[in-house]
Amino acid sequence: MTHLQAGLSPETLEKARLELNENPDTLHQDIQEVRDMVITRPDIGFLRTDDAFILRFLRARKFHHFEAFRLLAQYFEYRQQNLDMFKSFKATDPGIKQALKDGFPGGLANLDHYGRKILVLFAANWDQSRYTLVDILRAILLSLEAMIEDPELQVNGFVLIIDWSNFTFKQASKLTPSMLRLAIEGLQDSFPARFGGIHFVNQPWYIHALYTVIRPFLKEKTRKRIFLHGNNLNSLHQLIHPEILPSEFGGMLPPYDMGTWARTLLDHEYDDDSEYNVDSYSMPVKEVEKELSPKSMKRSQSVVDPTVLKRVDKNEEENMQPLLSLD
């Protein structure tokens, strides 16, 4: 075991070997091979290329060198293309702070039976008058940056549960294809995290309609890991044990405290509320749409047409069967 693996338990070391092809004898060589590819992309500013940083990209791509490098390049390219998103990229930024305090995201205290961190989002908590969807995305990315420092989570990964209870049609109409595309690019294509499952619960019919819009942008591997449970929490419990879930998800624990993760990041500044004008943010959603590449905009340049949503059978949610494979 090298010093780069010092933070891993014996069980996780074995998992990294078997599932990720991580070999302590070739670890430094693997890292160097990825680092040597940096010169092939002079158009990108690689701000970090240290061993520990590159290692998380190798783990995210099961030590396939080229795939790990491509993810590393996309990580920095995404930040170059969306510079305003990463200005004041800290927990005390007013927009990020407000999103964090409303539970975007939340994190459960217990890991699942695979050692994965369980992230939770309660969609209806979004207060459109106080912060933007971009702020929520920034808060999620900032949180992942903090969590991915843990080598155990680099290997074991994350699970995401999104509760759509009481999420209104009006709120859903703000989820433009362009905004959703930006989120997918930031989370699926440009971040070194392993997501073992994304679970939708209590989703209304119009969220299912939105899912059909973004589905073409998702990798096949990601599609297989999205589970539409509707109101069937029993199917959720087949994949995540109710003993570690809060009562909102039919679990045995008390209701989730939305400020738990925010207090971890903000510490003593959690209660220091400063005024934040949502309209003053330098990159509102409309500007995000302009920032997207022409290729992206060609596929997703308009708001979801409500007439399309209305054509979706409102009872379809009741007929949706959750997927039951975590391939």
From TrEMBL:
GO biological process, alphabetically ordered: lysosome organization
SMART domains, A to Z: CRAL_TRIO_N, SEC14
Subcellular location per the Swiss-Prot or TrEMBL entry: Cytoplasmic vesicle, Clathrin-coated vesicle; Early endosome membrane; Golgi apparatus, trans-Golgi network membrane
Superkingdom to which the source organism belongs: Eukaryota
Membrane topology designation: Peripheral membrane protein
Region of interest called Disordered, as start-end residue ranges on this chain: 289-327
Sample GO molecular function, one term: phosphatidylinositol bisphosphate binding
Description of how the protein assembles with itself and partners: Forms a complex with clathrin heavy chain and gamma-adaptin.
Its biological purpose: Required for normal morphology of late endosomes and/or lysosomes in neurons. Binds phosphatidylinositol 3,5-bisphosphate (PtdIns(3,5)P2).
Protein name: Clavesin-2
Source organism (scientific name): Lynx canadensis (Canada lynx)
